[in-house]
Specification:
This protein is an alpha/beta fold. The chain folds into three domains: 23-237, 3-Layer(aba) Sandwich (Rossmann fold); 242-321; 324-397, Arc Repressor Mutant, subunit A, CATH 1.10.10.10. Helix content is 54%, strand content 9%. The protein has 17 helices and eight strands. It has helices spanning 23-37, 55-68, 85-100, 106-121, 125-130, 154-170, 188-204, 218-225, 229-232, 243-255, 263-273, 277-290, 298-322, 326-339, 349-356, 364-372, 391-397, and strands at residues 44-48, 72-77, 176-181, 208-214, 233-237, 347-348, 376-377, 383-386. The strands form two sheets. The protein has a five-stranded parallel sheet with strand order 2-3-4-1-5, sandwiched between helices. Helix 6 (154-170) packs parallel to helix 7 (188-204). It is globular, with a radius of gyration of 23 Å. Residues 1-21 are annotated as: Disordered. Pfam families: AAA_16. Residues 18-211 form the Orc1-like AAA ATPase domain. It comes from Nocardioides aurantiacus.
Length: 399
Amino acid sequence: MDPVRNPYAPGAGQRPPELAGRDRELRQFEVVLERVASGRPDRSLVLSGLRGVGKTVLLNALRSLAVKRAWGTGKIEARPDQSLRLPLAQAVHAAVREVAHRHRDPERVDEVAGVLKAFALRTELKDRKAAGAGRWQPPTDVVAARGRADSGDLELDLVELFTDVASLARDLGVGIALFVDEMQDIAVPELAALCGACHEISQQGAPLVVVGAGLPHLPAALAASKSYAERLFRYVAVDRLPRDMAERAWTLPAATEDATYEPQALAELYRLTDGYPYFVQAYGKVTWDVAVDSPITWSDVMQAAPEAEAELAVGFFGARYDRATPAERDYMVAMADLGEGTGDAAVTTADVARLLERKPQSLSPARDGLIKKGLVFSAERGTVAFTVPHFGKFLRAQR
């Protein structure tokens, strides 16, 4: 098969040619946009799931829906070592630019820009350096507001900034949508401030929504930051695709290139990928390149599988494994051994300690380091699980 015509797209956050299995989420968000723009209350949204299930792809697709409805949008990717204030200012600035040019009152636009500038200027110097602020400056052609979004209290300042920005969008009959990827990496105090601001904005009925995406423990982290967070957001668990949707992700793009699959080939692809979207694209791409002609056969899939596994071992699994320290690698190998035969389900930290013949307290630095690096997560106290599907299988195969 012609590799130039290969219709599959394995990549971090790269939208596949067929966004299969996410129709329900897209329709629900369209309803949210319509309701909020018309002044009806609705909840912001949080997507959670393992790595490789397409959270970022879905986040970007939701943003596209907002753009099509002329909303102002902005997006950030949270980092554990970065304060939230400046990245949020950048995202809000992008959203304001998308609506400001349609506004009939330039003075009102400048007033909101002044509030945004005041908010951004409250960023501490160390946080500006960490965020690489030299590449971005708040609006320079307006005077920073005084006494508005500049108190230094993040929650209070966000409420005032969100209120003014949402009001600007309301004048046009639209809203503001802010998208936060890797939301679990926001520090707890700032996560609480963001929740508090969203709560206040929701009570005001202001046309502003926040859409977050993160690892499976994100809902628990939000609930820990603010007790009402479980009612503040609508939570969507983004998971692997059922077989019919995975087959759709393979067959529809292939059909655009006048190619088909034999049923046995599709069955084997699903067995190998378990329906995880990143694997669906990765195996689909390699299988296409291996196949000589259409229809693509079971033999093509079997020939492609080792190459696909090798590519994943380097780019998807290996890159993450290499980030871990020796002690952290020992911890993950123990998790993999304990998870064999269970689909790499969560294991207890006590069992990991017993297998390594160590005291649980002595393993806390390794566990905490893995959590900080986003390699494992703890959905319940005393348990850990991999953030990456098939990671245990990969580790067991390295022996």
